[in-house]
Amino acid sequence: MIHARGLSRTFDTKHGREKKQVQAVQGVDLDVEAGEIVGFLGPNGAGKTTTLRMLTTLLKPTAGTATVAGFDVATQPVDVRRSIGYVSQSGSTSPEALAGEEIVDHGMLYGVGKQQAERRGRELFEQLDLDGLWTRQPRTLSGGQRRRLDIAMGLVHDPGLVFLDEPTTGLDPQARANLWTHISALRSERGSTVFLTTHYLDEADALCDRILVIDHGEIVASDTPESLKRQVAGDLIELIVLSADQVAPAAARLSALAGADAEVADRTVSVRVPRAGTELPGLLRSLDADGIALESIEVRRPTLDDVFLELTGRSLREHA
Ligand SMILES: Nc1ncnc2c1ncn2[C@@H]1O[C@H](COP(=O)(O)OP(=O)(O)OP(=O)(O)O)[C@@H](O)[C@H]1O
Hints:
Helices cover 38% and strands 28% of the residues. By secondary structure, the chain is of the alpha/beta class. Strands 6-7-8-3-9-10 form a six-stranded mixed sheet, sandwiched between helices.
């Protein structure tokens, strides 16, 4: 559905009199197959929006190629646009028009006949829990309802591929979870392919089959959330020893287990291992044999934030 090779975008900027170039996206290769829900993550300024704008033909690449829904973004932009839905961060509803009118107009803009746009619009209202809101002005809707209306607009011409730019930013947790259900249903009920950017790691974890991580304009990881967590971070074993003199022998045990230096803070010693479950019984036996008494031992499964920290040196939570 989406295939990019060496996709790049440079911006010319001015700092006072000095002209500079910003490499916003540098040689991005990416492949998204039909029916996938792919999350595009990265810290602020990593190049997410610039990539999305190139893939949706709103911005020309300075190098590289991309085909979207089978069409070339540079030479067949009109065909690309007809084949995709794009829901931007700011949404596209005008506050004064009626919600239903907006959706019909939007469909007609894409060349859908009026009757068909209305039929399709009403169907989407039902699917997206917007029943009864056809004649309401978008400004009178709740944040979650407005976001779902934005998504309905992006879908009225029945695209097989939908780009969602930060679909749940600014929504409360309940409205976010509700929108995740609707986004999942796009795939299960319509077979749509979804490419979304997000700052929320729990969103990517809950919703996406695959995650692409971009940093400084380059893709630094592409995998399922589960294997990213397993490969990049591993489980954290964290133990607290009873007395300070047992910190050093405990650290030596854990370092040997992990094949890397254990971290020590006060009486807490920790390491990351690929699978803590298989290591714990042996570890507990050997600590016992060494006479190391524990106050507690805990295992933490890795989170996507650990993955981020490992890959980019930054925590996404700082920006969420
Ligand atoms: N029109 C522009 N002119 C100059 N620089 C730009 C322009 N658009 C983007 N940039 C720069 O390109 C880099 C990537 O920006 P981009 O908006 O793609 O990042 P992002 O990952 O979407 O960030 P955010 O999460 O903050 O939305 C940044 O350094 C940004 O300042």
